[in-house]
Amino acid sequence: MKVLIFDDAERAVISAADHIVTALSAKPELVLGLATGGTMLPLYQRLVAQYQAGRVSFAKAATFNLDEYIGIGPDHACSYHTYMRDVLFNHIDIDQSRTFLPRGDCADPVVEAARYEALITESGGIDLQLLGIGQNGHIGFNEPTSSLSSLTRIKTLTADTRQANARYFENAEDTPKYALTMGVGSILASRHTLLLATGTAKAKAVAAMVEGPVSAVCPASALQLHPKATIILDKDAAARLELTEYYHHVHPQGAESAWN
Ligand code: GLP
After folding, report:
1. Is 39 in the pocket of ligand 1 (CB under 6 A)?
2. Cβ(252)–Cβ(3) under 8 Å?
3. CATH classification of the domain holding 90
């Protein structure tokens, strides 16, 4: 794992955006895996600004989002489809016919999960998968005890996850109970994973992910098995790591190591 720690969230976001811009410059037809949640908002703002400044184009890229709530359609105000259009897709030059998310309003979520996984494979696989982390260590909606080789499927959300996401819904009880999510195995199949975490609320999950045992209890810890996992943190999210001195030594201020 490459652990990059920045003094503040703004610098962490800039680094994450730079990784994406660099990947798109090297491969304009990049297959980019995307995440949702509050952490990603400033990152998408930064990408939109970079696009507007002419520093990046998404014209040839394709995107696959990690997850979507079951039972709500793409036009629902709280769907991840809407989130992605509002914060990113409507503001960049991406061909929206190449932006994919699981359909939460599908007739059969089991069939939809298999279709989505197959679509990722047919696209040639994900080049760069962006990730956030839940306070319970989830990635996508892979809640604790998710199989570490799971593929896209239905997951039942934990009470804590529903509570954390209730802020987006008018009535807390409307927060969906189920989601379709790429599996931990789907995420591990991507060629590069880029996880962004900021704020003290994530510190415990980050410590378990980076320095804990590989365990389904913390699905993000499966990234320890990934050959190219980059973890971008601000110092608050990094607060409970024990080997911080080493991470700073290898990547001072989040810089590339001397070997690069
Ligand atoms: C959500 C999403 C995850 C996201 C996480 C953290 O439930 N399914 O992909 O990483 O929770 O969200 P936030 O950034 O709002 O803390």
Report:
1. yes
2. no
3. 3.40.50.1360
